[in-house]
Amino acid sequence: MSGVRVLVGTKKGAFILTSDEKRQDWEVSGPHFAGWEIYHMKGSRVNPDRIYVSQSTGWFGQLIQRSDDGGKTWEAMNNDFTYDNDPGTHQWYDGSQHPWEFKRVWHLEPSFTEADTVYAGVEDAALFRSSDGGQSWQELPGLREVKGHLWQPGAGGLCLHTIVLDPSNPNRIIVAISAAGAFRTDDGGETWRPINNGLVSPWEIPEERADVGHCVHNISIHPSRPEVLFMQKHWDVMRSDNGGELWHEVSGNLPSDFGFPIAVHAHEPETIYVVPIKSDSEHYPPEGKLRVYRSRTGGNEWEALTNGLPQENCYVNILRDAMAIDTLESCGIYFGTTGGQVYASADSGDSWNAIARDLPKVLSIEVQTLP
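Predicted structure:
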């Protein structure tokens, strides 16, 4: 019988929630790496037993952990994110006279086809790739050459937080950076270009339609239609039908077009989910009502999903990597809050249950559908 494994990264450790395909009863494992910030956990698409973890603290630095048995045991990678293998320095030696410093790994993205290939987005913004399962890393420096001197940090830092791989074209990668925008490579990371045409940021950058400088929060695609991209921006929900060449707004009747995550249904490429937040200064749901919004038309027309979610006095936030989906026949949707709750829907969002409560602040949610 198939099932799911929900990977929860929190402010003070990692948790793994498992269930069968009914998704009614859950087993909770953790905290793994108690006391450490776990910015992101992601399972391999090729090997369901492999899980990568971004583990960091301001004192001990950045480490990548890997499990090859579904999270039962872990191994710290001898990765060279750190200069001279000193995990306290957060430095990357790129061949110049001085090491280049960064704070943490925000996002890990395993390959669709290569078991040992995984990408990492870091702060300050850059993209790395490992071809040996996280043991060693190489930067893809062409990205920082695309007007990198104009990139500015968003409220959360200058972070490369989103990595979208095209399952039909291994040479195409799309990344999002706060606050720089979205970028695409079509040659495996050698060269890059901005894909921000149609984005408008009148309060964020001097030239509101500039090709670099927009604060993109998240990008999502459906594997069957990699040309269609959905974006949650720092105001505005956007859509592109041509791989990011041109974007148009699909915020429609949302109560607020500010938010962080965006996700696409596993079997319905035109069904998308967002969680609106009141504003960029008030990071909580409008009216204190926690509502996931679903569009079955690829945007513009949205419906509030509230069954099982608190509808009064709720002031949590849902961060950019804190929403995910499974691929079971009745698609499951999951999200975590800054209040430590993890909510799940086994019926595409029609009803919700809290499958974990009182965890530390949730930083990320990922899901593995198990055979």
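Summary: The domain at 46-317 is CATH 2.130.10.10 (Methylamine Dehydrogenase; Chain H).
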